[in-house]
Amino acid sequence: MVEDRDNLFYRPDLHPYREYGSEAVIPKAPPPVNPDVPEVPDRAKELIDDFEQVIDIITAAPKGVDIIVPSIRKLIRRLEVAFPNGYYEEEPKKETVTPDSDSHPRKLSGIGTNVYKIDKKMGNLPNLFPAPTNIVINVVKPRSIVDIAVDKYRKDTIDLQKYYLNQLQTALQAYFHQMMMIMAETNLPSIDNLSMDYDGKAVKIPAGQNLEHLHDYIVRSQVIREQKTRLFKKTHNVDQTVMHMRYWHVSEKERERYYTEKYGGSASYLDSEANSILRNSRSQYDKQYAQSLYDMYKYLNSSVIVIKDILDMSLNESKAKGQLLNKGVDIFAVTEKKVNVNDAASGGAGDSSNGLKNVQTVDDKSKSTTTTSTSTNSDQTKEKSKQAADSISKKTGSN
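The chain above was modelled as a monomer; its predicted structure follows.
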């Protein structure tokens, strides 16, 4: 190396030194496997689990909200029937198509190994593709209209119930979050203590503390909330839920049935008119399906709106109760109900006892009459038998 440096025309070698040696034995390790393979979630199963959690939470909500529990059970049942194997949103299957029929396509040659021929017709430009190559093409089979309609219904079912679930979770989360804050300030052990009925006649508000408006608000809000709950029971019961679900499901089945039929030929006038009727029927049931889906959305969304109103009114009542409780007011006071026994009622009871006694005396009389008649009959029988014996003795004596 020193001699080379002393040379006037010395040029160092800039290539890396790649001669490495090692006496260690390195085993061949298997190719790494990714342990965290993302699993495709089952959206139907997730919805069912989330709905079950909502049902458990509703048990702690104020009365009136539990009306939707049977309807949620129907939605869960619909998911179990419509998606017995789950819903994963799988992509359509792709088929690999090659232009040649050979199962083993020829391998492409490396760069720089082909001899490019010059084509005079191309202006003395080299031909970049000297030999045909096997190009793999991924072809997606077109789906039928029926499959598209069924997938649309399945997707709409998942999306609509997911929207309904999110709205319920948002309303319940906002309610219980603020209720926990009220319980922390009032030191109450249970949330039911704030959801109890407020007896406006029994609770006494001390004068001079400016608490009458809270008392009046609780009484007035309870009445309005009770009326909303009664209306909610009539408009959003389980029968109404099943009716909307059936209307939507029947519309989907009718649309699927008409899309299964295919257009015929147009050789005659009647053939063309039959195709026109089929086209109008498809369009009609497309509109009916869209309308039934919109009606189902409005029904579920309106139920969430009423539930939010009930929860908000109950929450405001709990806030007013908490403030009264912190001010020393007994919000759990209840009017005692006294049962007064009237003289008429007691007299009626006496008459009934006398009636029983009279019945017993009548029975006793009937028993005594029966025994008397029985004894009389026995005496008559004895007398007759005695007379018969006397007559027989007289006859024997005369003889």
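The radius of gyration is 48 Å.
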